[in-house]
Design brief:
Length: about 180
């Protein structure tokens, strides 16, 4: 059990690493602000792929021109396939940005911004999901492990926004619950 907790903590650190240190990664104040407040909160790779970001900070985040993309076989981002967020895309404090990759945005969402795109995640092999800035520099990377969650479930943080990732009931655009 102790090894599992250590693994989960390591995975949590890996999935929330803000990428602001190397030449291919963001280095602006805006990027650092976004990386400090925004986390990957839930990722599903089967039964309607999606990725959910949560603004854990106290300030609204303008992600106009940013995009979400899947990864190449080596885990690097594929910015040519990024789902770009239009001008005026702002994530309020405590709100979600949801990207549905194989289905339409859920109805009745409150406190969430939702986009539909055409990227998919590999359930069998696992995959990185990247938030890239307008210049295609990596801001955040979320790791969806191979067979991370079966249909009807997602790889999600518990407690919501801060905890380790685990296999939970899907809750796109809403708080994760065990």
């Amino acid at each position: 059990m102790n090894r599992l907790r250590t693994f989960a903590l390591g995975l949590l650190l890996l999935t929330t690493a803000a990428a602001c240190s190397d030449q291919n990664e963001c280095d602006s104040d805006a990027c650092r602000s976004i990386a400090a407040q925004l986390v990957f909160n839930e990722i599903a790779g089967t039964g309607g792929d999606f990725a959910e970001l949560l603004n854990t900070g106290a300030s609204p985040l303008d992600v106009s021109g940013y995009g979400l993309t899947d990864s190449n076989a080596d885990g690097s981002p594929r910015p040519d396939r990024a789902i770009r967020f239009p001008a005026g895309t702002v994530i309020a404090p405590g709100a979600y940005l949801l990207v549905m990759m194989e289905s339409n945005c859920p109805t009745g969402l409150t406190g969430a911004v939702c986009f539909r795109g055409e990227v998919g995640l590999s359930q069998a092999e696992g995959e990185n999901v990247h938030l890239v800035d307008a210049s295609n520099r990596v801001v955040l990377t979320g790791v969806y492990p191979a067979n991370g969650a079966p249909a009807g479930r997602a790889w999600a943080r518990s407690p919501n926004g801060t905890g380790a990732f685990m296999n939970l009931v899907r809750s796109p655009g809403r708080s994760n619950t065990p």
